[in-house]
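Go through this:
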Amino acid sequence: MKHVKLIAAVFLMWVTQSQSSELFPNGVLRNIAFREVIEEDVTIGGYPILIGGEKWQFEKGIASTSTGKSSIKMGSVTLVHFEGNQLFAKQFIIATTESGTNSYWTGEPCSPNHLVIRQGIKRNREDHCLTIDPLSTTVGNKQITLLNILITQSGSQGRYYQVAFGLNLALLGFLDSSVAEWNDTSIKADKRKAKLLEKVTLWAESYFALSNELMNYTKPSPNLFEKVLPYRDLVPSPFGLKEEKLSVGFLGALEDISNRVDNSSIAFSKYKDHITPYGYAYGMGTKEMADKLAIDNCEKVRPVDAGKCVLFDFAQAQNKNTRSRSANTGEKDTDDGQSLPLNKNNLINLDIAKIKCEELGFKVASESFGKCVLQLMK
């Protein structure tokens, strides 16, 4: 009898733990508070969500039913990832929380007119699509622009999973950017934009390649997305400063200001690890005016126990970075004899993965390119 009771207790504990990580147990949104931190193995309708070891917080969610002849239970949630008071990333996920019978989805998620389109193998009425576009969103009273990765997966019996994953362009090196500034023409004319879009596309392809498993009849493990490339790797590293434990907001702003030709400046206070108060100014009448405004803007956000804001010394940083690169002997030979630098952790980074996969014959525009990257990152 005790043995039976023990088995029952273990089973109940397993069911409780399983239900606790599901956002919509029995098709109903669980009790969850605004800005509550989401667990790593969270699911929606049994489907995994990309958390990636980051601090994602719940913003809102709703249980609903689909329209059409055969209604199906669905759930949708909005999650946000903040770094300090800045939005780093935002995702909206909508998925079926039950299966229907002989039902399917209409629409063309891979229709033209996107910055990037990748389409998986289309089977009958199933959709497997990735698109990337700029998207405007509001945080508080401030309008910001995201690069929005939209992945749509649908299968038989009404199964559906769509995620809109947005990355804040300000943290990726483009301050005060607008949706209108991100189109085919402007990207082709701007090497920095083109390079960033290429990197984001590579990241999205690794995500998309794994998401194709969502429509298997056996739902994948909650850890399905753990092999997706870290989106934090997309944050720029101007002057090789990424390892200096500076905030991603400061690194993004520094990347932008360092590439401007107008009278611009940036000031900062190295406060705590990954917390860097800063202020910037650009398009000013003189460099002196830009310096003063950058200091003033930094002082407005500097905590009282942080050191005074100082101007970033571009010349000094450039010289230090040049010496560091010259002294770096960490290289790895590729099969064709070329040398490729390794990052601090001796792992293949995004740029190296792209080069290697192209060498192996994979086209950047193909779904198999993402799979190649996953193999290199193992």
